[in-house]
Amino acid sequence: MAVSEVTRILSQLADGDAHAAEKLLPLVYAELRKLAVARLAKERPGQTLQATALVHEAYLRLVGGNVERTWDGRGHFFAAAAEAMRRILVEQARRKMSTRHGGKLRRVELDEQAAIVPGDHEILALDEALTKLAKVRPQAGKLVELRFFTGMTVEEAAQNIGISARTARRLWVFSQAWLRREMQSPKDDQP
């Protein structure tokens, strides 16, 4: 993918060029789809959202409607895509948790194994903890978001954030421990 071409089109999009979004999608689609597939692979079996739908929804949120379209380049765009995918998955988890959609009931496949994959409760808990982490340590929050919701490696996420890989590895270890502690601490609203 020509990085300069993506950056040029993002600049055109920020300037209000209506046709820039049409030119951008073919350049970033494969990478967005790869990120979506990696993220959805971490979901429980029976997930109804497909990678293609996740990519399309995230892309529409990024370039459609009355959205502010100012990105500082390719890395910033993909970070925004990671956040959009996160929000979509959180919204879907909340929707599925609502009473109207079965509440706490969960579909179980006969051949489903007891794999440790995040369910709706875990995604909501992670989102809450990640929001708190981002307030305390913004770089740590962005690192976790890029690693967990887009499947980037520590090195890729470090490059995206603009920190060294060594710093990112230390931040990743810290973030995992912080999130684990935060998600395991007792909550007042839980039975």
Q: How are the SSEs ordered, and which strands pair?
A:
Elements: H1 3-14, H2 20-40, H3 51-63, H4 74-97, H5 120-136, H6 138-150, H7 154-161, H8 165-184
Helix pairs in contact: 1-2, 2-3, 3-4, 4-5, 4-6, 5-6, 5-8, 6-7, 6-8, 7-8
| Secondary-structure element series | HHHHHHHH
Q: Decide which structural class fits the backbone.
A: mainly alpha
Distance between the termini: 50 Å
Q: How much of the sequence is in beta strands? A: under 5%
Which regions are unreliable across 5 or more consecutive residues at pLDDT < 50?
Answer: 108-117
User: Please, how many helices?
Assistant: 8
Shape: globular
Rounded radius of gyration (Å): 18 Å
Describe the protein's architecture and organization.
- With 191 residues, the protein is an all-alpha fold.
- The chain has one domain (3-184).
- It is 67% helix and 0% strand.
- It contains 8 helices and no strands.
- It has helices at residues 3-14, 20-40, 51-63, 74-97, 120-136, 138-150, 154-161, 165-184.
- Helix 7 crosses helix 8 (165-184).
- The radius of gyration is 18 Å and the shape is globular.
- The chain starts with a helix and ends in a 7-residue tail after the last helix.
Summarize the structure.
The chain is mainly α.
Give me some keywords for this one:
about 190 residues, mainly alpha, globular
